[in-house]
Amino acid sequence: MDPDRTVARRRSSLLLLRLLLVALLWSGLALGTFSLGSSSHRVLHDLLSEEQLLKVEDLSLALLQGGRMGPLSLPPDLPDLDPECRELLLDFANSSAELTGCLVRGARPVRLCQTCYPLFQQVASKMDNISRAVGNSSESHNCARSLLMADRMQIVVILSEFFNSTWQKANCANCLTNKSEELSNSTVYFLNLFNHTLTCFENNLQGSAHSLLQLRNYSEVCKNCREAYKALSSLYCEMQKMNELENKAESGTHLCIDVEDAMNITRKLWSRTFNCSVPCSDTVPVIAVAVFILFLPVVFYLSSFLHSEQKKRKLILPKRLKSSTSFANIQENSH
């Protein structure tokens, strides 16, 4: 219904009620039967319906108070959303609620990127529908102004920035393809290997307890799951190196939070819970280099001692001592 026609019809009905009330007042005064008691109310009730009677009473109170009509006198141009804008707002609200629920459910253990990326794309699409001017029409501009810039809070903008900030902090783009339409091959392979490692842990646990923290003997886990753990750790290191090569200009780049959290969980289970260790294959070269470095000072001082020349100390007699001894020898020969 046209709002202008509604306002005009309301004003005309109010005008008719005023005229009817004035006529009733004058007729009551002329007949001498008007009073503020029950007789006047009975006359009005006979002439008007229940709804009309309530309107007349409200109108009479407004006239007695100075003619102000309260809510009925509000301007007709109250701020309201067009049907198109309201539909855009509801679409964004529904998609935001779904994404929020997905983020909270995937908080621990972290499963944000692998489970919520379709919903994030949906929210981004709904936000684009609101912010961009479709066909450069004035309605689209009005929707963007009404939903994004009409008040100080700007709730829609705040929610959109929160989702974008969360997505960037989680570095979910590192787990997805270039167009962010699906998980990358390396991410899928890592998650499969991660699930395989956890399955190996569960299958080789000894004891009947259900909690991992209550178990005591993990020798079978360390023995049978060593290869799976080494493969997962090697793949993680390779993904880190590839990420550093691809993002040389950006310092402190990380893998997506799902991959990092999965590797942290596996390492904690392996080293802290199961108390397992992986022998290093480069132990012999490392030990050889360490021994060589330790013996370097010994070799240095030994070689310097062997190749240095030992200077013999020579006793040099003074000249006076030589002359006195030769004189003594001459005297002995003369005797």
TrEMBL record:
Transmembrane helix is among the record's keywords: yes
Keywords (A to Z) from UniProt: Membrane, Transmembrane, Transmembrane helix
Entry's transmembrane regions: 284-306
InterPro entries per UniProt: Osteopetrosis-assoc_TM_1
One GO CC term, this protein: lysosomal membrane
Pfam families: OSTMP1
The keyword Transmembrane is annotated on this UniProt entry: yes
An individual GO BP term: osteoclast differentiation
Name assigned to this protein: Osteoclastogenesis associated transmembrane protein 1
Organism: Balaenoptera musculus (Blue whale)
